[in-house]
Amino acid sequence: MAGRSCYRDVLPFTAMVTVEITNVGLNILFKSATSKGLSNYVFIVYSYAFATVLLLPLPFIFPSRTRLPPFKLSLLVKAFLLGLIGFVANLCAYKGIDYGSPTLASAMSNLSPAFTFILAVIFRMERLSVRSISTQAKVMGTLVSISGALVVVLYRGPTVLSNTSEKDWVKSGILLTVGYLLFSTWSILQVISTSLVIH
């Protein structure tokens, strides 16, 4: 019983922390590599190739019991669109880091849950109940995330070990915002596509 509780409560938290640490590490690695002359596009190709090598064996190691949907052209189009949105999101995010810094990217990544919540409401995947404490907390979290991102972009503060101009800093913030909006769209579309395939 204790093991099941630990699995249910601790594992998601551990996964979330691991993903955040990985993202910050990847942002720092990207900034370091591109400052030494590596192209943004080459870095994205390398990261996609590494992810493919890492994830491709998983279906063979952990086979799924669910039956795969029949192959149709619409499925191929959805996969292509998801890949395109993911690629453009990565491109915007990495270009934003190129103009700004990994620190700015980490601060702006707090927009992802806010955008995901807003899109979930728009696509009616999330219901708003004004009297619900859960809804109030989500709305407050969304407002705080967006306000924090605006403060980070518009008020840069004193320059510390950085040579980016004010114009580049704002450009970086805009690109990162677009990137994280696309990441949230990508996540929502994946859920919608999966639910349509399952039903």
Automatic annotation (TrEMBL):
Domain annotation EamA: ranges: 25-153
Principal subcellular localisation of the protein: membrane
Record organism: Rosa chinensis
GO CC aspect terms: membrane
Record's bilayer topology term: Multi-pass membrane protein
Record family assignment: Belongs to the drug/metabolite transporter (DMT) superfamily. Plant drug/metabolite exporter (P-DME) (TC 2.A.7.4) family.
Record-given protein name: WAT1-related protein
Subcellular location: Membrane
